[in-house]
Specification:
Layout: E1 6-10, H1 17-30, E2 35-39, H2 45-55, H3 64-88, E3 92-96, H4 99-109, H5 114-125, E4 132-137, H6 140-146, H7 160-176, E5 181-185, H8 190-211
Parallel strand pairs: 1-3, 1-4, 2-3, 4-5
Helix pairs in contact: 1-8, 2-3, 3-4, 3-5, 4-5, 4-7
């Protein structure tokens, strides 16, 4: 059986990832694919507990290194229980964040050493990376304005300069991995963003399925 495709969605706060995930799920199912939509941190019982711990605004004592270790532990379980079995079964996996987010938030935002994060990634998922990463990108001020008024977790309460570092790290990842990462301008209407998103998805699907024949 042909392995399914692994698609990730990345971006800073307020760029519209939830809307993007829904559009991807619908488009893939309409084209006949079996789809698993999941998220990080999360996706398993362990992952959801790690998510609660990391996002808890009352536990501000976690260093970037501790956050990264927790995230990779949850990621290992997620891969074992959800992602790898689904891909092996020919399903397409769409994941809200993956290792790029750790590089952006803990690496760029918290200043954790990139080489150390890369070593953790090799331990947890050497040989597996997303086939396509959709990076929803918008100016930090735009994203923060969009989430104004909702209850914020510990990350969403960070200052603008933190998110500027996160965004810069994401853009650096996109520049270093142009074969995998496609930047989508998220500072536009939902229809415009989804139009670009689906165009990239169609192009990728044709290439991925063609390579599997």
């Amino acid at each position: 059986m042909t392995r399914g495709a692994f698609i990730t969605v990345e971006g800073t706060e307020g760029v519209g990832k939830s809307t993007c995930l829904s559009a991807l799920d619908t488009a893939l199912r309409d084209s006949g694919h079996r789809v698993v939509v999941t998220r990080e941190p999360g996706g398993t019982a362990l992952g959801e507990r790690v998510r609660d711990l990391i996002l808890d605004e009352h536990d501000g004592g976690l260093s970037g290194e501790i956050e990264a270790l927790l995230l990779f532990a949850a990621r290992a379980r997620h891969l074992e229980r959800v992602i790898a079995p689904a891909l092996a079964d020919g399903k397409w996996v769409v994941c809200d964040r993956f290792t790029d987010a750790t590089h952006a938030y803990q690496g760029g935002g918290r200043g954790v050493d990139r080489r150390w994060l890369e070593s953790l990634a090799r331990i947890v998922h050497e040989g597996l990376e997303p086939d396509l990463t959709l990076l929803l990108d918008a100016p930090v001020e735009v994203g923060l304005r969009r989430i104004r008024g909702r209850e914020h977790d510990r990350f969403e309460k960070e200052h603008t300069d933190f998110f500027s570092r996160v965004r810069a790290a994401y853009l650096d990842i996109a520049e270093r991995a142009p074969h995998r990462v496609r930047r989508i301008d998220a500072d536009r209407s939902v229809d415009a963003v989804n139009g670009d998103l689906l165009a990239v998805l169609r192009e990728f699907t044709a290439r991925f399925e063609g390579a599997g024949k």
